[in-house]
C-alpha cells in the first residue's frame, strides 16, 4: 500500500470512465428498445434519469411493450431493484455519508458503483472514490447513451422488421449471463423461465414474470443458511 | 398509463436505494433477506428472457426471435460486449425475416 493515496486514485478513475463507456453502450440499446416498445423519447429519458437501474428499466419497458399493464411493469421493476437497497446497506458504513450526500449517493447505488467500491475497499478513501467516480461516470454516459438510442429508434419504423423484438430478450440474457456463476444460479434461472412459460397461456401478460419471483423467495428461504 | 408506470416505478426504485442508506446495516445479518434479494434478479431476468423470446400475448410461438437469442448466446460465449450481443440478435432476426426464413 502506498502512502500517496492521491496518486493511486488515478487508475480507479480510469476504470470508472471505462465502465461508464461500456454502460453507455447498454444505454444506447435501452433507449432504442424502450422507444421500440412504445414509450416516447421523453419517457425513456425520464427512466434513465430517475430510475437509473438498468435491469428494472429494461423490465419496465419490456412488460409494458408486451401488454402486461402498468401495475405488473412497476412491480417487476421494483422487485428487480430491491438488490440496490441491499447494496446501499452494504456500502453505507464505508461511504459514511451525512446530510444531502445520502440522497445523491442513493441514486448512484447500482451494480457497477457498488462492485467498484467493494473492489477497492482496502482503504475507505479509495472505496469512496471508486463509488463516486463510477456512479457519476455511469450516470452521465448511461443517460447520453439513452438519448442517442431513443432518438435513433424514433427515426426508424417497425421494430419487428429491424429485429428489435429479438434485441429485447438478448438484452435480458446479457444482464442475466454474468449472474449465472454456479449451479444454484442455473437452477433458479431454469425455474424462473419454466414458471414464466407455463403461466404465459394461463394468466394475463406481466403475471408470469412476477410469479417467477416466487422461485427466488422459495430458493432464498431454502438456502438462507448457505450464503 | 405509461407515465404513471415510469414515475411510480422510478420512485419505488429510488426509495429502495435510499432505504439502504437510512435503515440499520444489521438488516444484512438476516440471511433470508440477503439471499432472496440476490436471487430475485436471476429468477426474474431468466423469466423475462423466456417470455420475451417465446411469448406473443398469451400464446407461445417460435419465430425469428428464437434465432436472435441463439445468436446472442453464441456472442456471450465469445465474451462479446453488451451492444454487440444485442445488435447480433437484432440483425440475425431481421435478416431471417428479410429472406422469408422466419416470421
Automatic annotation (TrEMBL), chain A:
Q: Name one GO biological process term.
A: L-valine transmembrane transport
Q: Which InterPro entries match?
A: Brnchd-chn_aa_trnsp_permease
Keywords (A to Z) from UniProt: Cell membrane, Membrane, Transmembrane, Transmembrane helix, Transport
What compartments host this protein? Answer: Cell membrane
Query: Its GO CC terms?
Result: plasma membrane
Per the record, membrane topology reads: Multi-pass membrane protein
Which Pfam families does the annotation name? AzlC (PF03591)
> What sections of the protein cross the membrane?
12-38, 58-80, 130-153, 159-177, 184-200, 206-223
The family assignment reads: Belongs to the AzlC family.
- The protein, known as: Unannotated protein
Taxonomic classification: unclassified sequences, metagenomes, ecological metagenomes
UniProtKB/TrEMBL annotation, chain B:
Annotated organism of origin: freshwater metagenome
According to its UniProt record, what is one Pfam family this protein matches? AzlD
List the top taxonomic levels of the source. Answer: unclassified sequences, metagenomes, ecological metagenomes
Transmembrane parts of this sequence: 36-54, 66-96
Query: What InterPro entries does the annotation carry?
Result: Brnchd-chn_aa_trnsp_AzlD (IPR008407)
Keyword list (alphabetical) reads: Membrane, Transmembrane, Transmembrane helix
What is this protein identified as?
Unannotated protein
Amino acid at each position: 500500500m502506498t502512502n500517496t493515496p492521491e496518486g493511486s486514485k488515478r487508475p480507479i478513475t480510469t476504470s470508472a470512465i471505462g465502465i461508464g463507456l461500456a454502460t453507455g453502450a447498454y444505454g444506447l440499446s435501452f433507449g432504442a428498445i424502450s422507444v421500440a416498445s412504445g414509450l416516447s423519447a421523453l419517457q425513456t429519458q425520464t427512466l434513465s434519469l430517475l430510475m437509473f437501474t438498468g435491469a428494472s428499466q429494461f423490465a419496465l419497458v419490456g412488460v409494458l411493450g408486451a401488454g402486461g399493464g402498468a401495475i405488473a411493469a412497476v412491480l417487476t421493476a421494483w422487485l428487480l431493484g430491491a438488490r440496490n437497497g441491499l447494496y446501499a446497506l452494504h456500502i453505507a458504513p464505508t461511504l459514511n455519508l451525512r446530510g444531502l450526500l445520502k440522497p445523491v449517493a442513493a441514486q448512484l447505488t447500482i451494480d457497477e458503483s457498488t462492485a467498484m467500491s467493494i473492489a477497492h475497499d482496502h482503504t475507505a478513501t479509495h472505496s469512496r472514490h471508486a463509488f463516486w467516480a463510477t456512479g457519476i461516470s455511469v450516470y452521465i454516459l448511461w443517460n447520453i447513451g439513452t438519448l442517442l438510442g431513443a432518438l435513433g429508434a424514433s427515426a426508424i419504423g417497425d421494430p419487428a422488421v429491424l429485429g428489435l423484438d429479438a434485441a429485447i430478450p438478448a438484452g435480458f440474457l446479457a444482464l442475466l449471463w454474468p449472474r449465472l456463476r454456479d449451479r444454484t444460479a442455473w437452477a433458479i434461472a431454469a425455474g424462473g423461465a419454466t414458471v414464466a412459460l407455463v403461466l404465459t397461456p394461463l394468466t394475463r401478460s406481466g403475471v408470469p414474470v412476477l410469479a417467477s419471483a416466487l422461485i427466488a423467495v422459495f430458493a432464498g428461504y431454502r438456502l438462507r443458511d448457505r450464503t | 398509463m405509461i407515465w404513471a408506470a415510469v414515475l411510480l416505478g422510478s420512485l419505488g426504485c429510488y426509495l429502495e436505494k435510499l432505504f439502504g442508506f437510512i435503515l440499520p446495516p444489521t438488516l444484512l445479518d438476516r440471511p433470508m433477506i440477503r439471499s432472496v434479494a440476490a436471487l430475485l434478479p436471476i429468477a426474474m431476468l431468466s423469466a423475462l428472457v423466456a417470455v420475451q423470446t417465446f411469448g406473443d400475448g398469451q400464446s407461445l410461438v417460435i419465430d425469428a426471435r428464437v434465432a436472435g437469442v441463439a445468436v446472442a448466446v453464441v456472442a456471450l460465449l465469445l465474451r462479446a460486449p453488451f451492444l454487440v450481443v444485442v445488435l447480433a440478435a437484432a440483425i440475425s432476426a431481421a435478416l431471417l425475416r428479410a429472406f422469408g426464413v422466419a416470421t
